[in-house]
Amino acid sequence: MGIISMIIVGFIVGLLARAIMPGDQKMGWIMTAILGIVGAFVAGYLGQAMGWYVPGEGAGWIGSIVGAIIVLFIYGLVSKKS
Question: One GO cellular component from the entry (predicted)?
């Protein structure tokens, strides 16, 4: 049940990040879910490095969305060059 909830939350976070980020991101629903999940991991690691989260603590909703926006920005830079 934990994996299913992680995929659902990742999908919601990915949708919100795509709605906030300007431009047209051509991604399917699987890539949107992966975007949200990776964004949550990025936010968790950045938060731990900055001292905002203790090790093992996950990022919250806002942190996950910010992490997904960072990943989406990097994805946009990489996909434009190829």
Answer: plasma membrane
Instruction: Tell which residue, 10, 73, 81, 1, has the closest CA to residue 41.
Output: 10
Residue among 67, 75, 35 at smallest CA distance from 50: 67
In Å, how far are 35, 48, 71, 72 from 20, measured between CA atoms?
A: 14, 24, 13, 11
| C-beta of residue 76 within 8 angstroms of C-beta of residue 25 | yes
CB 16 within 8 A of CB 70: no
Please give the single-letter amino acid code of residue 29. Answer: W
pTM of the model: 0.79
* Distance from C-alpha of 32 to C-alpha of 30, rounded to nearest angstrom: 5
- Contact at 8 Å (CB) between 35 and 41? no
More confident residue, 43 or 82: 43
CA distance 9 to 72: 17
